[in-house]
């Protein structure tokens, strides 16, 4: 297998994985609705940074530990599950405490930003949130350790090739996230109401808790 054919083949597999709705999509959409394009892109960049880390780990054999050691996989799985449950429950709890009339209609200010200076995380925190969520998802690591080695040519250096493949996934992921973010931005007038914003936060928080519980109960 040549480097070019490996990149094209992996791009097809990674592209299909990218467009399947999941935790990453939920986080980016919620960030786009709550904080606008800046926070959504910061979240997407955090997720993609995590993909690069997993790609490097799979290339050098770090993520192989997750499949070889049940203890390591279980520890990461439970840590990720606890984080998702905490994050989702905290999001739902905040909507219960948030005043209903924090944003005037047509003000151009997102409901979360209007709720107070501490309600909206900085772009740096949004990036870190995306990164941490991706790194604490062991299924991403298992995907990379199962799939990525198959696309590394025998004569190619593992680490650079692994990073290159992860970069292909990043480009596809950022293209997909960009479509979602700008699509959400176009519909922002319909999504700007404080009441609808609370509903979206509750739904997203519930989804995150559901992902966390499912991850905690998973045995594979």
Automatic annotation (TrEMBL):
Where is this protein found?
Cell membrane
Keyword DNA damage attached: no
Keywords annotated in UniProt: Cell membrane, Membrane, Transmembrane, Transmembrane helix
Where do the TM regions start and end? 6-29, 41-66, 72-89, 135-152, 164-187
How is this protein situated with respect to the membrane? Multi-pass membrane protein
Q: Highest taxon of the source?
A: Bacteria
Q: What is this protein called?
A: LysE family translocator
């Amino acid at each position: 297998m040549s480097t070019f054919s490996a990149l094209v083949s992996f791009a097809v597999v990674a592209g299909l994985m990218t467009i399947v709705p999941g935790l990453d999509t939920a986080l980016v959409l919620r960030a786009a609705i709550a904080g606008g394009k800046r926070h959504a892109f910061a979240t997407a960049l955090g997720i993609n940074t995590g993909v690069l880390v997993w790609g490097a780990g799979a290339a050098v054999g770090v993520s192989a530990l997750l499949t070889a050691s049940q203890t390591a996989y279980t520890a990461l799985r439970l840590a990720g599950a606890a984080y998702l449950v905490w994050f989702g429950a905290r999001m739902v709890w905040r909507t219960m405490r948030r005043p209903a009339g924090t944003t005037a209609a047509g003000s151009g200010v997102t409901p979360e930003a209007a709720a107070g200076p501490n309600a909206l995380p900085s772009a740096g925190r949004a990036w870190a949130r995306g990164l941490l969520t991706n790194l604490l998802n062991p299924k991403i690591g298992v995907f990379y350790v199962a799939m990525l080695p198959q696309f590394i040519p025998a004569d190619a250096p593992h680490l650079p090739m692994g990073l290159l493949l992860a970069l292909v996934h990043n480009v596809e992921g950022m293209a997909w996230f960009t479509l979602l973010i700008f699509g959400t931005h176009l519909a922002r007038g319909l999504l700007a109401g404080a009441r609808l914003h609370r509903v979206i936060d509750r739904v997203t928080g519930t989804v995150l808790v559901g992902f966390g519980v499912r991850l905690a109960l998973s045995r594979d």
